[in-house]
Amino acid sequence: MKLRLGILAVLLLTLAACGPPEPVKLGFLGGLSGRVADLGEAGRNGALLAVEASNAAGGVNGRKVELLIHDDEQQAAAAIKATEALVAARVEAIIGPMTSAMGEAVLPVATRAGLVVVSPTITSSLLAGKDDVLFKVAPSLDTSTRRSAAFEYARGVRRAAIVYDLGNRAYSADWAEHFRRDFTALGGGVVAEASFMSGEDAGYGQAIKEIAVAKPDLLHLVANAVDTVRLTQLSRNLGLTQPVTTSTWAATEHLLQLGGRTVEGMTVAQFFNRDDASPGYRAFTTAYAARFKQQPGFASVAAYDATKAVLTALAKAGKGQPLKQALLSAGPYEGLQERWNFDGNGDAQRQTYITAVRNGRFVLVE
Fold it and tell me: What is the pLDDT of residue 12?
C-alpha cells in the first residue's frame, strides 16, 4: 500500500511538472472612465492586440501572456491603488499610465517595488532624462512644441494665446512653457495665458474670455480631446475666428468624432502618421478595426509598440537579468511605423509630424 501511495505521489509530481508553465503577467494602467477614456481605451486595445499576437505565436518562450487591466480614473489615488494591486499580482511590468500626471503619481510606488513602467504616451520633459524605472515610448514633448511653434510662425502667426488644463499639469504646464519658449525664440510672442480645471464648468468660458482680451492671432489649447472641442466651440460662440492648434494629447479619433466641423483646420504636432504604408501598420489597422469597430490612433499604436518591446525584452533576457537592463539592450525595436530604441535613460526618439484636420481626418502637412 505504501509503495502504491509513493508511486502515486511521484506520478502526481511528474504530471504537475509537465503542466503548462506559469503565465507571464503584464499590467495595463490607464484612464478608462471619465474625460480621458479615449486615450486609455485606445492604449488598452493596442496592448491587448500585442498580447494576443504574442500568444498566437507561442507566447514568451512558451509561456502564455496575461494582461491585467486597471482603470486609474485620471486620479492619483486610484492610480496608486491600482499600481499597488499590480505589484501584489507580481506582474513583470506595467504598460501605462497614459498621462504624465498619473506617471508622477505612480512612479514612487513602482520605484519602491522595482517594477518597470513602460508608458506609451507620457511625454513630459519633467519625467525625461532620468535613470529610473520609467520607460517612455513617445518622444519628449519638447520635440513637438518646437515643430508646432516653427510651423505656426512660418505661416505668419506672431501673437499666440495659450489655454491649458491644470488637471494634467505635469504635461500641460510643461507643454505651455516649452511652446512659449520655442515661439518666443523665433520672434513671436505669447500675449495671453489662461488655465482651467477639467470638469469644472465655469473655468472653460472664463479661460477663453481672458485670452480674447489680448486679441491673439492663434489659440493654442493644451487639453484632452473632449476639452479641446469644448474650448474651441466656446471660442467660436464668442466670435473668435483665429486658427486653433492643440497638443498631442488631444490628437485622438475622439477629437474628430466630437468636434466635427468645429475642429476643421485645427493643427497638431504628433508622432503618428495615419497614412503610413508600412505592411505591419496596415495589418494592425485591419485587425484593430475588425476587433474594435474603429480606427486606431496614436495611443493604440504606441501601446502596441510598448507591449511588444516588453515582450521582446523578456524573451531575450538572460537568466536573472533585470527587465530594465533587458529593455535597454534588446533594441532597436521594430515598431508598427518605424524602428526605434530607448536611450540610456529609457527615453525614445521618434519622428514628429505636423497634421491638420481636413474633411474629418488628420492629414499630414509637414
Answer: 45
Nearest residue to 166 (alpha-carbon basis) of 144, 140, 196, 146: 196
Give the cell for residue 305.
509598440
Instruction: Determine the pLDDT at residue 11.
Output: 44
Give a three-class secondary structure readout of 280-340. HHHHHHHHHHHHHCCCCCHHHHHHHHHHHHHHHHHHHCCCCCCHHHHHHHHCCEECCCCEE
Q: Provide the b/e sequence for 210-231 (b: ≥16 CB within 10 Å).
A: bbbeeebebbbbbbbbbbbbbb
Q: How many DSSP H helices and E strands does the chain contain? A: 12, 14
Quote the cell numbers at residue 247: 497638443
Give the pLDDT means over successive 10-residue stretches in the chain (366 positions): 48 52 97 93 99 98 98 97 99 98 98 98 96 97 97 98 96 98 98 95 94 98 97 97 97 95 97 95 97 96 99 93 97 97 96 96 94
Nine-digit cell string for 289: 478595426
How far is C-alpha 315 from the geometric centre of its chain's CA atoms? 24
Residue 137, φ and ψ in degrees, nearest 5: -80, -30
DSSP-derived 3-state class of residue 143:
helix
Other Cβ atoms less than 10 A from the Cβ of 31: the count is: 28
Q: How far is CA 108 from the centre of its chain?
A: 19
Tell whether omega for the bond before 332 is within 30 degrees of 0, i.e. cis. yes
d(CA 64, CA 287): 21
Residues in the chain, overall count: 366
Domains and CATH numbers, the chain: 24-139+277-351 (3.40.50.2300), 142-270 (3.40.50.2300)
Give dist(CA 107, CA 115) in Å, integer: 9
DSSP 8-state secondary structure symbol assigned to residue 89: T
Say which DSSP state 40 is in: H
